[in-house]
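Section 5.1 Outputs to date
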Amino acid sequence: MVLTIKRINKKHFRLLIICLFLIGCNEEYQMQTVLINGNIIDGTGTELKQDWDILISDDKITKIGPNLAIPQHATTVDVSGLTILPGLIDMHGHIYANLGSTNGISNQKSYLKFYLAGGVTTIYSPGEYDAEGTLDLQNRVSQGQEVGPNILTTGPYFDHSPSQVPWINGIKSVEELEYQFNKWSGKIDGVKVYTSITSKELSRLVELADSHDLPVTGHLGSVTANEAIDLGIHGLEHGIFGMPEFFSSGFTPSSIACQSGDFALTHPEIKMLIDKIIDNQVYLTPTIITFQAMLVNSEPVTTDWQKYLSSDVLKSISKFEKRLMSNQNMQDCLENGLKKQSKLLKEIYDRGGLIVAGTDPVGPMIIPGFGLHREMQLLVEAGLPPMAAIQAATINAAKALRKDAEFGSIETGKLADLIVVEGDPSQNINHIGNTVMVFKNGKQFNPSELRESVIGKIGGVED
């Protein structure tokens, strides 16, 4: 090979030298990393594999197995005695927080680092306060300008006007719905409907979403879960707290935070609903942590949670907690609802339903990453085996997003989204929080360093 060089700057010269002497101009250069001697939970439901290796080439998993041959220029990471799992997926991973004041909703770039530190390599944000800003963050993360998980989003909420949430710009007709969908269809990964959507609007929205292969999920109210499934909805948010069927006294927008209905799972309407969830493989995102965090006896998601919040937010939360904790009717409603939620989840799991894990961290005390660890623990408390809770946050979530060919399990050809933890979460789900290192798209991150960088940033000034 003959190279003719007339003028070359220093940067190009250095690249040429690397090409000629380190990797060879006739070879495609790959950054390769090998995790050696790890115990692997691959997310598919198979048993833990001991002392296996994983070869990462650029952003993909290219080989898995015991005693892999290590490429000459590969970086090796010894994870002996540690467990490797697929990167976690938060299926209700908002990037905004309610900070407690009248205008207290804020986008939180700091949330991105918290997610990643907890091993959450993908978030699915079902509706955002600042939908355009979320797209910008999505692009900045993909370009490496911001550190965080891969972001999937539904863009704006689809709701009828007036929405129960003042800042949601609702639609007033099917024509307006079509306009909003067409505006966003090429930018989003799914669709989220909210509590005031009408049956006619939901029906048309599902038709449009299906034509673009986009899943539709719902935080329901005006439309029952039974009817929504008949209309073709693909996911249900918040479990019974978002299912009007469970409200024996009639559903109102304010009911959503407190489920006081007395319908049992054996009630004919509820039995019909459960059958439909199973038969149509409608995925369920129960967000147990969202409601459990409102209980007077709830444990924080991490003992040092307060250090991550700004002083102003801590004051606002303190006032909110006093009002909530002193409302005994609300406490009783939450306790009742959560018990029923657990029974519903156990029955759906036992019958082969699709349960996914999400946190809805609009309440800033549900700190991302930590919050998903707690949600997985709560799934186990509801009666799911630890391996099922792991799948809810990995392969099940990827299936619900229609992305299971790309990520969600440790298999060759999939994205190198991995977490390494101490212990064995398939035996003790509490070990899921013992995160030692995180790989997103093949790049390694240190959880402790990520969290240290955002101490006091939730609700505070962000870089």
